[in-house]
Design a protein that fits this description.
The structure is a single chain. By secondary structure, this protein is mainly α. It is 52% helix and 0% strand. The chain contains two helices and no strands. The protein is elongated and about 75 Å long. The model has no long low-confidence stretch (mean pLDDT 82).
Length: 73
C-alpha cells in the first residue's frame, strides 16, 4: 500500500489531476435528479392525502363522531 507524504505533489501529479473523489463533474446532474425526486415525492404525497381526505369527506362524519375514538382513561 502506498503512502502519501506530500499531498500537494500527489494532487498535482499527472495520474491524479483533480480526481480527488469519484464522480467529479456529476454534481449538477445529481442535484437535478434529486430535485426531480423531491418534487415527485411531494406530488405523490399530496395525491395520497387528497385521496384519503376525499374518502373521509365522502363518509360525511358528524361533529361528534370523534368522541367514539376517545378511550375512558
Amino acid at each position: 500500500m502506498a503512502t502519501v507524504s506530500n499531498w500537494i505533489d500527489h494532487l498535482s501529479a499527472a495520474e491524479v489531476q483533480g480526481a480527488v473523489y469519484p464522480g467529479v463533474g456529476t454534481e449538477g446532474i445529481l442535484v437535478l435528479v434529486l430535485a426531480v425526486i423531491w418534487i415527485g415525492w411531494h406530488v405523490m404525497a399530496d395525491m395520497q392525502e387528497t385521496r384519503k381526505s376525499k374518502a373521509i369527506a365522502k363518509k360525511r362524519p358528524g361533529s361528534n363522531d370523534w368522541k367514539s375514538n376517545v378511550t375512558d382513561g
